[in-house]
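Figure caption, in words: inputs first, then the predicted bound structure.
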Amino acid sequence: MVIAIDGPAASGKSSVARRLARKIGFDYVNSGAMYRAVTWELLREGIDPARSESVEAALARMSLDCGFSGEGEFFIRVNSELPEVELRESSVNSQVSEVSAIPAVRRLIGSRLHAVAAGRRVVMEGRDIGTAVFPETPHKFYLDATPEVRRRRRAAEGHNDSIEKRDRIDSTRRHAPLAVAPDANVIDTSHLTLEGVVEAITGILRHRGIGPA
Ligand code: DC
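Bound structure (2'-deoxycytidine-5'-monophosphate present):
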């Protein structure tokens, strides 16, 4: 079973998805971190993300796995490396949207996301989880917040990347753009606390018989 949490950058997805998963006893999967891991590896190899043929050649020889540690933490391994803080580097922030627009990248990561969710109960956050990766799940949430609030949240986390630019590329790309699924529950998090958003989601799930074990 997959609970999809989609939305733009700094809409609160990661904190909400992580907290929600812990609360209802599901595993947490961060799909954005997969796109970041591929971007980080391409940059490490000196590949220009704008050259999609070079990216495709690098993907063909890239080993990319994800799974859960003994403690249940989601991990990503790319060519035997386990990048973590590196995934938030500004070079990754500035290139990840270009890399994510390449269809071969989306196919590779989409197949890994299906494999990691198989036979599990997961809360998966991203941009296209409810629209493209698991469109059949009835549990779709789209978190949003005003640009001003999102900018403030990013700054408070110590980042000053251009979320507007990323959102523009993510929303206008040809393949699986950021979009609201017609059957998604849309939650504006601008004036809600983290716990408030989690409460709103758990309330909806409780009506569907999903809750703490
Ligand atoms: O959630 P995040 O900010 O860490 O995601 C980084 C980028 O990855 C985002 O700008 C676009 C891409 N992404 C995507 O294309 N599809 C997803 N399901 C998740 C992220």
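The mean pLDDT is 95.
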